[in-house]
Design brief:
Elements (H helix, E strand, L loop, with lengths): L12 H14 L5 E2 L11 H12 L12 H15 L8 E4 L1 H13 L5 E6 L4 H8 L3 E6 L9 H7 L4 E7 L11 H13 L3 E5 L15 H4 L7 E6 H4 L8 E4 L2 H12 L7 H13 L3 H21 L15 E5 L1 H4 L11 H12 L1 E2 L1 E2 L8 E5 L4 H16 L3
Helix pairs in contact: 2-11, 4-5, 4-10, 12-15, 14-15
The structure holds pyridoxal-5'-phosphate (PLP).
The site of pyridoxal-5'-phosphate has 13 residues, from α4.
Length: 396
């Protein structure tokens, strides 16, 4: 008796993996959970103070549907600094996390029958939201090109129905950071084929080694009129539960988002908006750099352990806080093991035998992948990865 649209999506694959790890833990098993897309951290003192002050000041009312003007102005300044361009408050809408920013984008940009290019492996919510908007996701496999989309593959996937391309860098799940040339080529193609670019940079504050995060509008200012920037404080300030994200783009898009959001959620939580505003006004950057060093050191601890894997290449982990393993060697019978294993089999074995929660690549459209989050406490991370390496190296 439910609406047909409910058949278009299941609960997100990452949420299911998290639930499986939690169920095993609740059943009394000791589990090290590497499934979560969030960072283990204390709250920034400025966020805490900002929220408490807002409560003490009796803040309890609706704000403007797309967020407090002071916060939108402050975000416009931040985006201006990030991109080297001038952005104004009327080009920014505050949302309940990046997920709502993406949902709004899908609802205001897509018509039924449109197609949207999504490089695969992909974050599981991208295609689900495209489907909800009545459009069709078209996947471009990046696995044969180091998880970076090949521009010729994108060209081949474009047709008259193509309306948008999703660009997520640093990438969830692959941990890849798109280089300048790739972004420039995507922008050029989008201009040439009249496509929207949905540019998700939620992990932009976490880039490692010599890699740099490039906002696509900085590389190709001429693509700005067709680009929606999607971002949030969920990862950059370890605030997943507070639900503050935003979308920046052309005024007419923001105008449509305002109307849409006025009929869905109205404003994002007011106390969280005040807290983020207080933080952005007062921060000296020390909390952010502590978070970045925590992630950088967790990455190093993780790579040291993962370098002991015998059948799997060490992941690149250029950005974000995910290790993405290529399990191809396990998917076919080999000299060592007559039995082929799927990524789902491996996830189950890791959970049941090694007590390590991981996310199967099937959640990301890649039956050969395995995602491990290194946003957790370092001692747990190291112990979990050692167990994982032992299990995979001993796989028969
Ligand atoms: N975009 C990407 C690529 C993500 O990985 C996530 C969350 O994992 C989101 C958006 C959603 O973030 P939020 O928690 O701010 O809704």
């Amino acid at each position: 008796m439910l609406a047909q649209r409910t058949s278009l999506f299941g609960s997100s694959g990452t949420a299911a993996a998290r639930a499986a790890a939690k169920a095993a833990a609740d059943a009394g098993k000791e589990i090290i959970d590497l499934t979560a897309g969030e960072i283990w951290s204390d709250l920034a003192p400025t966020i805490r103070r900002g929220a408490i002050d807002a409560i003490d000041n009796g803040i309890n009312r609706y704000t403007d549907t797309i967020g407090m003007i002071e916060l939108r102005q402050t975000l416009a300044c931040k985006i201006s600094l990030d991109t080297g361009q001038v952005w104004k408050a009327d080009e920014v809408a505050i949302t309940s996390g990046a997920k709502q920013a993406l949902f709004n984008a899908a609802m205001v940009l897509l018509n039924p029958g449109d197609e949207v290019i999504i490089p695969a492996p992909y974050w599981t919510t991208f295609p689900a939201q495209v489907l909800l908007a009545g459009a069709t996701p078209v996947f471009v496999d990046t696995r044969n090109n180091g998880y970076v989309p090949h521009i010729e593959d994108i060209k081949r996937a474009i047709n008259d129905r193509t309306r948008a391309i999703v660009v997520n860098t640093p990438n969830n799940p692959t941990g890849i950071v798109y280089d300048l040339q790739t972004l420039a080529a995507i922008a050029e193609l989008a201009i040439h084929r009249n496509l929207w670019i949905v540019f998700d940079e939620c992990y932009g504050d976490f880039v490692h080694g010599h890699h740099t995060h490039h906002p696509i509008v900085s590389i190709a200012p001429e693509a700005r009129t067709r680009t929606l920037i999607i971002n949030a404080f969920s990862k950059s300030l370890a605030l997943t539960g507070w639900r503050i994200g935003y979308l920046a783009g052309p005024k007419e898009v923001i105008h449509a988002v305002r109307a849409l959001q006025s009929h869905t959620t109205s404003n994002a939580n007011v106390i969280a908006q005040h807290a983020v505003l207080a933080h952005l006004r007062q921060t000296d950057g020390s909390y952010e750099s502590r978070l970045r060093s925590q992630i950088a050191s967790a990455r190093q601890i993780g790579l040291n352990v993962l370098s002991l894997l015998t059948r799997i290449p060490v992941p690149k982990a250029q950005g974000g806080f995910y290790f993405y393993l290529d399990l191809s060697a396990f998917l076919r019978p080999s000299e060592r093991s007559a039995r082929a294993a799927t990524a789902d089999d491996i996830v189950n074995t890791l959970l049941c035998e090694a007590g390590v929660g991981t996310v199967s690549g099937t959640a990301f459209g890649d039956p050969a992948g395995l995602r491990l989050s290194y946003g957790i406490a370092p001692e747990k991370l190291e112990a979990g990865l050692i167990q994982l390496v032992e299990t995979l190296n001993a796989w028969e």
